[in-house]
Description:
By secondary structure, this protein is α/β, with parallel strands linked by helices. 35% of the residues lie in helices and 16% in strands.
Amino acid sequence: MHIARTTDGSTPxxxxxxxxxxxxxxxxxxxxxxxxxxxxxxxxxxxxxPPELADLADIEHRRADLRDHDQTKxxxxxxxxxxxxxxxxxxxxxxxxPRFDFQANGLATCNVGDACRESSVRRLVYLSxxxxxxxxxxxxxxxxxxxxxxxxxxxxxxxxxxxLRSLHDSAGLPVVIGRSFVVYGPGEDPRTAGGEVSQxxxxxxxxRPIPVVGDIDGKTRDFISVLDVxxxxxxxxxxxxxxxxxxxxxxxxxxxxxLADAVGRVTGRPARLxxxxxxxxxxxxxVADVSKLSALGFRPRVPxxxxxxxxxxxxxxxxxxxxxxxxxxxxxxxxxxxPGGCQEPAPC
Length: 348
Protein backbone atom coordinates (compact mmCIF):
# COMPACT_ATOMS: atom_id res chain seq x y z
CA MET A 1 0.00 0.00 0.00
CA HIS A 2 1.27 3.48 -0.86
CA ILE A 3 1.22 5.82 2.15
CA ALA A 4 1.55 9.55 1.58
CA ARG A 5 4.41 11.19 3.46
CA THR A 6 5.23 14.82 4.10
CA THR A 7 8.38 16.51 2.84
CA ASP A 8 10.19 15.64 6.09
CA GLY A 9 9.43 11.94 5.57
CA SER A 10 6.73 11.60 8.25
CA THR A 11 3.27 10.13 7.80
CA PRO A 12 0.59 12.26 9.49
CA UNK A 13 -1.81 10.31 11.67
CA UNK A 14 -5.20 9.74 10.05
CA UNK A 15 -8.47 10.89 11.59
CA UNK A 16 -9.82 7.46 12.58
CA UNK A 17 -7.57 5.82 15.19
CA UNK A 18 -8.17 2.73 17.33
CA UNK A 19 -6.41 2.02 20.62
CA UNK A 20 -6.71 -1.52 21.97
CA UNK A 21 -6.46 -1.60 25.73
CA UNK A 22 -7.44 2.06 25.73
CA UNK A 23 -8.80 1.88 29.29
CA UNK A 24 -5.54 0.54 30.70
CA UNK A 25 -2.64 2.38 32.31
CA UNK A 26 -0.78 3.44 29.18
CA UNK A 27 -3.85 3.23 26.97
CA UNK A 28 -5.86 5.92 28.72
CA UNK A 29 -2.93 8.34 28.53
CA UNK A 30 -2.52 7.62 24.81
CA UNK A 31 -6.25 8.07 24.15
CA UNK A 32 -6.13 11.43 25.93
CA UNK A 33 -3.10 12.45 23.87
CA UNK A 34 -4.73 11.48 20.58
CA UNK A 35 -8.09 13.03 21.47
CA UNK A 36 -6.36 16.35 22.15
CA UNK A 37 -5.39 16.46 18.46
CA UNK A 38 -9.04 16.44 17.40
CA UNK A 39 -9.04 12.92 15.99
CA UNK A 40 -11.80 10.36 16.40
CA UNK A 41 -10.49 7.68 18.76
CA UNK A 42 -11.99 4.21 18.99
CA UNK A 43 -11.26 2.66 22.38
CA UNK A 44 -11.23 -1.15 22.31
CA UNK A 45 -11.42 -2.61 25.80
CA UNK A 46 -13.44 -5.08 27.82
CA UNK A 47 -13.42 -2.64 30.75
CA UNK A 48 -15.66 0.37 31.16
CA UNK A 49 -14.05 3.72 30.31
CA PRO A 50 -12.46 5.44 33.32
CA PRO A 51 -13.82 8.88 34.29
CA GLU A 52 -11.00 10.76 32.56
CA LEU A 53 -12.05 9.26 29.21
CA ALA A 54 -15.82 9.39 29.67
CA ASP A 55 -15.92 13.17 29.30
CA LEU A 56 -13.64 13.43 26.26
CA ALA A 57 -15.18 14.52 22.99
CA ASP A 58 -15.11 12.28 19.92
CA ILE A 59 -14.30 9.07 21.80
CA GLU A 60 -16.07 5.86 20.83
CA HIS A 61 -15.92 2.84 23.12
CA ARG A 62 -16.20 -0.66 21.65
CA ARG A 63 -16.14 -3.84 23.73
CA ALA A 64 -14.25 -6.70 22.15
CA ASP A 65 -12.47 -9.85 23.23
CA LEU A 66 -9.39 -9.75 21.01
CA ARG A 67 -8.89 -13.48 21.49
CA ASP A 68 -11.87 -13.86 19.14
CA HIS A 69 -10.99 -13.05 15.52
CA ASP A 70 -14.52 -12.07 14.45
CA GLN A 71 -14.95 -9.70 17.39
CA THR A 72 -11.54 -8.18 16.69
CA LYS A 73 -12.29 -7.62 13.01
CA UNK A 74 -15.68 -6.05 13.77
CA UNK A 75 -14.29 -3.79 16.50
CA UNK A 76 -11.52 -2.45 14.26
CA UNK A 77 -13.89 -1.63 11.42
CA UNK A 78 -13.28 1.89 10.11
CA UNK A 79 -9.93 2.37 11.84
CA UNK A 80 -7.19 3.79 9.63
CA UNK A 81 -4.46 3.46 12.26
CA UNK A 82 -4.25 1.11 15.24
CA UNK A 83 -2.21 1.27 18.43
CA UNK A 84 -2.21 -2.22 19.95
CA UNK A 85 -1.65 -1.98 23.71
CA UNK A 86 -4.14 -4.57 25.00
CA UNK A 87 -3.09 -7.76 26.72
CA UNK A 88 -1.92 -9.22 29.98
CA UNK A 89 0.58 -6.88 31.62
CA UNK A 90 1.29 -8.94 34.74
CA UNK A 91 4.44 -11.03 34.83
CA UNK A 92 3.18 -12.71 38.00
CA UNK A 93 -0.05 -13.78 36.31
CA UNK A 94 1.89 -15.08 33.31
CA UNK A 95 3.78 -17.43 35.62
CA UNK A 96 0.60 -18.60 37.35
CA UNK A 97 -1.49 -18.77 34.16
CA PRO A 98 0.79 -19.10 31.11
CA ARG A 99 -2.01 -20.26 28.82
CA PHE A 100 -4.12 -17.19 29.62
CA ASP A 101 -1.07 -15.01 29.12
CA PHE A 102 -0.35 -16.44 25.67
CA GLN A 103 -3.96 -16.07 24.57
CA ALA A 104 -4.11 -12.46 25.80
CA ASN A 105 -0.78 -11.44 24.27
CA GLY A 106 0.10 -13.89 21.50
CA LEU A 107 -3.24 -14.98 20.05
CA ALA A 108 -4.88 -11.56 20.49
CA THR A 109 -1.96 -9.86 18.73
CA CYS A 110 -2.22 -12.32 15.85
CA ASN A 111 -5.92 -11.50 15.54
CA VAL A 112 -5.25 -7.76 15.59
CA GLY A 113 -2.55 -8.07 12.95
CA ASP A 114 -4.70 -10.26 10.70
CA ALA A 115 -7.69 -7.93 11.05
CA CYS A 116 -5.49 -4.95 10.18
CA ARG A 117 -4.17 -6.82 7.15
CA GLU A 118 -7.67 -7.68 5.94
CA SER A 119 -8.98 -4.12 6.39
CA SER A 120 -5.89 -2.42 4.87
CA VAL A 121 -5.08 -0.38 7.96
CA ARG A 122 -2.52 2.31 7.09
CA ARG A 123 -0.42 1.92 10.25
CA LEU A 124 -0.27 -0.55 13.14
CA VAL A 125 1.88 0.26 16.19
CA TYR A 126 2.48 -2.61 18.61
CA LEU A 127 3.69 -1.90 22.13
CA SER A 128 5.97 -4.74 23.20
CA UNK A 129 8.32 -4.83 26.17
CA UNK A 130 12.02 -4.85 27.00
CA UNK A 131 11.33 -8.01 28.98
CA UNK A 132 11.68 -9.89 25.65
CA UNK A 133 15.46 -9.46 25.96
CA UNK A 134 15.60 -11.55 29.13
CA UNK A 135 18.66 -11.06 31.32
CA UNK A 136 20.81 -8.50 29.48
CA UNK A 137 24.15 -9.65 28.14
CA UNK A 138 25.31 -6.09 27.42
CA UNK A 139 24.30 -2.61 28.46
CA UNK A 140 22.88 -0.41 27.11
CA UNK A 141 20.66 -2.79 25.16
CA UNK A 142 20.28 -2.31 21.41
CA UNK A 143 17.40 -3.68 19.36
CA UNK A 144 19.78 -6.36 18.01
CA UNK A 145 20.34 -7.84 21.48
CA UNK A 146 19.36 -11.54 21.63
CA UNK A 147 15.82 -12.26 22.85
CA UNK A 148 15.61 -14.91 25.55
CA UNK A 149 12.75 -14.02 27.89
CA UNK A 150 12.70 -15.66 31.31
CA UNK A 151 8.96 -15.09 31.92
CA UNK A 152 5.96 -16.39 29.98
CA UNK A 153 4.95 -12.71 29.73
CA UNK A 154 8.14 -11.96 27.81
CA UNK A 155 7.64 -15.00 25.58
CA UNK A 156 4.06 -13.99 24.74
CA UNK A 157 5.06 -10.41 23.94
CA UNK A 158 7.83 -11.72 21.72
CA UNK A 159 5.40 -14.06 19.96
CA UNK A 160 3.29 -11.01 19.15
CA UNK A 161 6.31 -9.32 17.62
CA UNK A 162 7.14 -12.36 15.52
CA UNK A 163 3.67 -12.83 14.09
CA LEU A 164 3.35 -9.15 13.19
CA ARG A 165 6.76 -9.04 11.52
CA SER A 166 5.91 -12.19 9.58
CA LEU A 167 2.70 -10.52 8.38
CA HIS A 168 4.80 -7.54 7.34
CA ASP A 169 7.25 -9.71 5.44
CA SER A 170 4.63 -11.94 3.81
CA ALA A 171 1.68 -9.62 3.31
CA GLY A 172 3.01 -6.07 3.62
CA LEU A 173 1.39 -5.28 6.97
CA PRO A 174 2.52 -1.72 7.82
CA VAL A 175 3.55 -2.43 11.41
CA VAL A 176 6.13 -0.81 13.65
CA ILE A 177 7.07 -2.19 17.07
CA GLY A 178 8.15 -0.39 20.24
CA ARG A 179 9.78 -2.14 23.20
CA SER A 180 9.09 -0.12 26.33
CA PHE A 181 11.44 -0.16 29.30
CA VAL A 182 10.19 0.61 32.84
CA VAL A 183 7.11 2.81 32.52
CA TYR A 184 5.74 4.85 35.42
CA GLY A 185 3.08 7.48 35.96
CA PRO A 186 -0.44 8.13 37.26
CA GLY A 187 -2.96 5.35 36.82
CA GLU A 188 -0.91 2.22 37.60
CA ASP A 189 -2.76 -0.54 39.42
CA PRO A 190 -0.87 -1.21 42.69
CA ARG A 191 -2.21 -4.78 42.74
CA THR A 192 -0.28 -5.71 39.60
CA ALA A 193 2.18 -2.92 38.75
CA GLY A 194 5.77 -3.89 39.48
CA GLY A 195 7.62 -0.78 38.34
CA GLU A 196 9.95 0.44 41.07
CA VAL A 197 9.05 4.15 40.82
CA SER A 198 5.44 3.61 41.82
CA GLN A 199 6.31 0.93 44.35
CA UNK A 200 9.02 2.96 46.07
CA UNK A 201 6.80 6.03 46.22
CA UNK A 202 3.81 4.18 47.64
CA UNK A 203 5.89 2.72 50.47
CA UNK A 204 7.53 6.08 51.14
CA UNK A 205 4.28 8.08 51.21
CA UNK A 206 2.94 5.68 53.81
CA UNK A 207 6.14 6.21 55.86
CA ARG A 208 7.09 2.57 55.50
CA PRO A 209 10.49 1.01 54.72
CA ILE A 210 10.93 0.32 51.00
CA PRO A 211 11.62 -3.37 50.23
CA VAL A 212 14.50 -3.77 47.78
CA VAL A 213 15.74 -7.09 46.47
CA GLY A 214 19.34 -7.42 45.31
CA ASP A 215 22.20 -4.96 44.96
CA ILE A 216 20.91 -1.39 45.32
CA ASP A 217 23.83 -0.03 43.30
CA GLY A 218 24.24 -2.80 40.72
CA LYS A 219 20.53 -3.16 39.97
CA THR A 220 19.71 -0.42 37.48
CA ARG A 221 16.73 0.42 35.31
CA ASP A 222 15.69 2.84 32.57
CA PHE A 223 12.58 4.62 33.88
CA ILE A 224 10.38 6.45 31.39
CA SER A 225 7.28 8.54 32.05
CA VAL A 226 4.02 7.28 30.57
CA LEU A 227 3.65 10.67 28.89
CA ASP A 228 6.95 10.18 27.10
CA VAL A 229 5.88 6.67 26.10
CA UNK A 230 2.76 8.12 24.47
CA UNK A 231 4.88 10.67 22.62
CA UNK A 232 7.21 7.90 21.46
CA UNK A 233 4.28 5.83 20.17
CA UNK A 234 3.01 8.76 18.11
CA UNK A 235 6.53 9.28 16.79
CA UNK A 236 6.65 5.63 15.72
CA UNK A 237 3.29 5.93 14.02
CA UNK A 238 4.40 8.98 12.05
CA UNK A 239 8.07 8.28 11.41
CA UNK A 240 8.86 4.64 12.20
CA UNK A 241 9.93 2.32 9.40
CA UNK A 242 7.62 -0.56 8.51
CA UNK A 243 8.70 -3.86 10.06
CA UNK A 244 11.22 -2.22 12.40
CA UNK A 245 11.65 -2.42 16.18
CA UNK A 246 12.53 0.54 18.40
CA UNK A 247 13.48 0.70 22.08
CA UNK A 248 11.31 3.11 24.07
CA UNK A 249 13.32 4.46 26.98
CA UNK A 250 15.35 7.46 28.08
CA UNK A 251 18.83 5.94 27.83
CA UNK A 252 19.46 7.07 31.41
CA UNK A 253 20.64 4.44 33.90
CA UNK A 254 19.27 4.77 37.44
CA UNK A 255 20.21 2.48 40.33
CA UNK A 256 17.79 1.51 43.10
CA UNK A 257 19.80 3.63 45.51
CA UNK A 258 19.57 6.66 43.22
CA LEU A 259 15.83 6.14 42.82
CA ALA A 260 15.40 5.98 46.60
CA ASP A 261 17.37 9.22 46.96
CA ALA A 262 15.12 10.93 44.40
CA VAL A 263 11.99 9.70 46.19
CA GLY A 264 13.41 11.06 49.43
CA ARG A 265 14.05 14.50 47.91
CA VAL A 266 10.54 14.69 46.47
CA THR A 267 8.84 13.69 49.72
CA GLY A 268 11.09 15.76 51.95
CA ARG A 269 12.41 12.91 54.10
CA PRO A 270 15.09 10.28 53.48
CA ALA A 271 13.82 6.95 52.22
CA ARG A 272 14.35 3.95 54.48
CA LEU A 273 15.35 0.81 52.61
CA UNK A 274 14.75 -2.77 53.68
CA UNK A 275 17.36 -4.50 51.52
CA UNK A 276 17.47 -8.24 50.87
CA UNK A 277 20.83 -8.76 49.11
CA UNK A 278 20.59 -12.56 49.24
CA UNK A 279 18.47 -12.77 46.09
CA UNK A 280 20.33 -11.22 43.19
CA UNK A 281 18.49 -12.67 40.18
CA UNK A 282 17.19 -9.29 39.07
CA UNK A 283 20.31 -7.24 39.90
CA UNK A 284 21.05 -6.66 36.24
CA UNK A 285 21.31 -3.45 34.21
CA UNK A 286 18.16 -2.89 32.13
CA VAL A 287 18.98 0.24 30.14
CA ALA A 288 17.94 1.14 26.61
CA ASP A 289 20.13 2.19 23.75
CA VAL A 290 17.75 4.75 22.26
CA SER A 291 19.84 5.78 19.26
CA LYS A 292 17.34 4.34 16.79
CA LEU A 293 14.34 6.13 18.30
CA SER A 294 16.31 9.34 18.74
CA ALA A 295 17.12 9.30 15.02
CA LEU A 296 13.37 9.75 14.40
CA GLY A 297 13.47 13.00 16.39
CA PHE A 298 12.11 11.70 19.70
CA ARG A 299 13.41 13.19 22.94
CA PRO A 300 12.02 12.36 26.41
CA ARG A 301 10.65 15.48 28.07
CA VAL A 302 9.91 14.38 31.66
CA PRO A 303 12.94 14.25 34.00
CA UNK A 304 12.67 11.43 36.52
CA UNK A 305 12.44 13.66 39.58
CA UNK A 306 9.72 15.80 37.98
CA UNK A 307 7.80 12.65 37.08
CA UNK A 308 8.10 11.36 40.64
CA UNK A 309 6.82 14.67 41.99
CA UNK A 310 3.81 14.61 39.68
CA UNK A 311 3.04 11.01 40.61
CA UNK A 312 3.31 11.80 44.33
CA UNK A 313 0.73 14.55 43.92
CA UNK A 314 -1.57 12.16 42.11
CA UNK A 315 -1.21 9.41 44.73
CA UNK A 316 -1.85 11.61 47.76
CA UNK A 317 -0.51 11.12 51.30
CA UNK A 318 -1.55 7.50 51.95
CA UNK A 319 -1.92 5.54 48.69
CA UNK A 320 -2.67 1.82 48.52
CA UNK A 321 0.45 -0.23 49.13
CA UNK A 322 1.95 -2.34 46.31
CA UNK A 323 0.97 -5.99 46.07
CA UNK A 324 3.21 -7.36 43.27
CA UNK A 325 5.03 -10.55 44.28
CA UNK A 326 7.99 -12.64 43.15
CA UNK A 327 7.74 -13.81 39.56
CA UNK A 328 11.14 -15.09 38.50
CA UNK A 329 10.43 -18.69 39.43
CA UNK A 330 7.19 -20.52 39.99
CA UNK A 331 6.95 -21.38 43.69
CA UNK A 332 6.25 -25.04 44.56
CA UNK A 333 2.56 -25.77 45.08
CA UNK A 334 1.52 -24.68 48.56
CA UNK A 335 4.52 -22.38 49.01
CA UNK A 336 3.91 -18.69 49.60
CA UNK A 337 5.86 -16.17 47.53
CA UNK A 338 8.91 -14.69 49.18
CA PRO A 339 8.16 -11.43 51.03
CA GLY A 340 9.00 -8.39 48.96
CA GLY A 341 10.07 -10.64 46.13
CA CYS A 342 11.65 -9.77 42.82
CA GLN A 343 9.55 -7.08 41.27
CA GLU A 344 7.84 -7.94 38.04
CA PRO A 345 8.27 -5.86 34.90
CA ALA A 346 6.33 -2.65 34.60
CA PRO A 347 3.12 -2.94 32.56
CA CYS A 348 2.99 -2.20 28.87
